[in-house]
Amino acid sequence: MEEILLKCAVVDDSSLQRLSIVKLIKDHPNLKLVAEYNNAIETKNGLLDNETDLIFLDIEMPILSGFELLDDLPNKPQIIFVTGKTKYAFKAFDYDAVDYIHKPVNKERFNNAVNKAINLFKLRHQTAAPEDEDFIFVKSNLKNRKVYLNKLKYIQALGDYVKFITEKDNFVVLATMKSFEKQLPDDRFLRIHKSYIVNLEKIERYNSKNIEIDKQKLPLSRHKKNNLVEALSAIQ
């Protein structure tokens, strides 16, 4: 996953308190300040215009408290409460707060709270990890090796052996092409020649004689041309 950068807002009726939090945000490599607000009404309106991942929120403010602000927000960003009072701590976590920081805020305590927000952001936004993707097991050097299908470019027959060409590396196993042809999903892989099974999504170019994967030309059997065209049309 790319470097996390959380868009942040600071909500506090005290300009001095806002200033201290703003400085900590600007010094943190994973945070970007998008707005400062001095009351809940201003915040509610401002959030409509500024995409915000994380709010550093005071609780005791005039007109509306931090809790009342959250009650009015249909889509809540992550919240780190920053307050001078400890009495609200239990209630704060009823609002699924990431953390609750007591004023005055020191850098170490601030960074600990931010790390929690970053980890939560990763959990919510991270794309499927390789462990969740489709794979097959291939026996290599007396061990079962996991091969992720989206990383597999093609398979080549080499006599009694089969060579796997993946985005990461290449390796050879003692096996037949037929055994793997049955394991691979036929909507994603096609045997284009007696010696080649290819990942359809990896094909960059093709003509009546060859297909090309990562600048490598592989032979295309005459009787497989129509199958190839149909298969590629189906995945577009």
UniProtKB/TrEMBL annotation:
Q: Establish whether keyword Acetylation is in the entry.
A: no
Superkingdom is: Bacteria
- SMART domains per record: LytTR, REC
| 4-aspartylphosphate carried by residues | 58
Show where the HTH LytTR-type domain sits: 154-234
A molecular function annotated in GO for this UniProt entry is: DNA binding
Question: Which PROSITE patterns does the UniProt record give?
Answer: HTH_LYTTR (PS50930), RESPONSE_REGULATORY (PS50110)
User: Which intervals hold domain Response regulatory?
Assistant: 7-118
Q: What keywords tag this UniProt record?
A: DNA-binding, Phosphoprotein
- Per the UniProt record, one Pfam family is Response_reg
InterPro entries, alphabetized: CheY-like_superfamily, LytR-like, LytTR_DNA-bd_dom, Sig_transdc_resp-reg_receiver
Q: Does this entry carry the keyword DNA-binding?
A: yes
This chain belongs to which protein, by name? LytTR family DNA-binding domain-containing protein
Tell me the organism's taxonomic lineage: Bacteria, Pseudomonadati, Bacteroidota, Flavobacteriia, Flavobacteriales
